[in-house]
Amino acid sequence: MEISTRFFSGKNIKIETTKIGVFMNVTMPDGEVHTNVEPRRYFPISNIYNYISIVKPPEKDKDKPTELLIIKDIEQLDSDSKAALLETLDKYYMIPKILDVIDSKNVYGILQWVVMTDRGKFAFDIRDLYSSIKQLPDGRILILDANDNRYEISDYKKLSKKGQNLLLGYL
């Protein structure tokens, strides 16, 4: 039996985390339960709260994931389900949030940064300033380091004055 993707606003859907990695359980409005499913963002940078795909992982190595449903807007979920979904998405995407820029220097065209994140202190290099530091319309700043790791600054105004000055020189 082939399952076609269904769109849901988010109302009357219940989501619970599981103890296994990035999996969760989803109970549909009709009572149907999908266990050990994973969430994926259709727009992981520009629209993180809308159009969340819920997929069943492949059962065999050669199989592909099966998309079960799409939640149009996570703001429509009840608070417990929203919290469970956001927790699972955070585990899956794991983008460290930069809390402050401690140091920054340019060495032969490579920008070297030392930052404090929600996961601890990191040092990394940025090779191409123009394509590696992006300010998004919602005010977030995404940074891509030389090893393709992503970092996010939710609100640069919350950085220390020194951190703001170091960052603003590259925006």
**Global mean pLDDT:** 88
Head-to-tail CA distance between termini: 52 Å
N-to-C series of helices and strands: EEEEEEHEEEHEEEH
Alpha carbon gyration radius: 19 Å
Strand-residue proportion: 35-45%
Q: Sheet with the most strands? A: 6 strands, mixed
Poorly predicted regions are none
Shape: elongated
Counted up, domains total 2
Structural class, from secondary structure content? Answer: alpha+beta
Q: Note the total helix count.
A: 3
Account of the 3D structure:
This protein has a six-stranded mixed beta sheet with strand order 1-6-5-4-3-2, covered by helices on one side. The protein contains three helices and twelve strands; from the N terminus they run E-E-E-E-E-E-H-E-E-E-H-E-E-E-H. Strand 8 and strand 9 (120-126) form a beta hairpin. The protein is α+β, with helices and mostly antiparallel strands. The chain has two domains: 6-93; 98-168, no CATH class. It has helices spanning 79-93, 129-132, 161-168; strands at residues 6-8, 14-17, 24-27, 33-41, 50-56, 66-73, 98-107, 110-117, 120-126, 133-135, 141-144, 150-153.
Quick gist of this model?
This protein is 16% helix and 42% strand. With 171 residues, it is α+β, with helices and mostly antiparallel strands. It has 2 domains: 6-93; 98-168, no CATH class.
What layout of secondary structure does this protein have?
Layout: E1 6-8, E2 14-17, E3 24-27, E4 33-41, E5 50-56, E6 66-73, H1 79-93, E7 98-107, E8 110-117, E9 120-126, H2 129-132, E10 133-135, E11 141-144, E12 150-153, H3 161-168
Parallel strand pairs: 1-6
Antiparallel strand pairs: 2-3, 3-4, 4-5, 5-6, 7-8, 8-9, 10-11, 11-12
